[in-house]
Amino acid sequence: MMVDSAYILVGLMLACPIVAGCSDSRASDVPVAVLGVPGIIRVAEVRTGYVNILPDEVKEQLDAREDFTIIDVRSPLQYQTGHLPTAISMPLVTLPWAMNSLARNKEVVAYCQIGVTSVGACNMLLASGFSDVRNMVGGISAWPYEVVTGNTIVVSL
Predict the structure, then answer these.
(1) Are 90 and 99 in contact (CB under 8 A)?
(2) Domains (range + CATH), the chain
(3) In this predicted model, what pLDDT tens digit does every residue of 30-51 receive, in sequence order?
(4) What is d(CA 71, CA 121) in angstroms, rounded to the nearest whole number?
(5) What's the pLDDT tens digit per position in 20-33?
């Protein structure tokens, strides 16, 4: 069957929580603008509440000693090989449980290796009631500054 690539046969609102590994039913409450023929869903826009932040901006916040939380959603081994200063290791698979140790009213910056997995983490945080969530664009691969090595702060199950 030939289908225009702009048409999505699997409902985005059902697939995203499953792909992201989020069992919270509120994750499917993301507003989606839909256009197209009834019966076939064409997604025009997915609105999210997280903000993209550049590595330079994160560095500025660190240098200014601003009060915010940085979470590294990569594996513990990747975290140990190099992470941002003050970053807490919260691998994506443990995030739904580990996030309970974070302040929901505080800015949270999530990052991964290249900035893709952290998008899923940002959406999980938003679905769980966090209001100031940011995704570091490019992940640690885009971080041109010194990293911390070792196992300093790890939160996992």
Answers:
(1) yes
(2) 7-46 (no CATH), 51-142 (3.40.250.10)
(3) 444 444 445 444 443 344 589 9
(4) 9
(5) 444 343 444 444 44
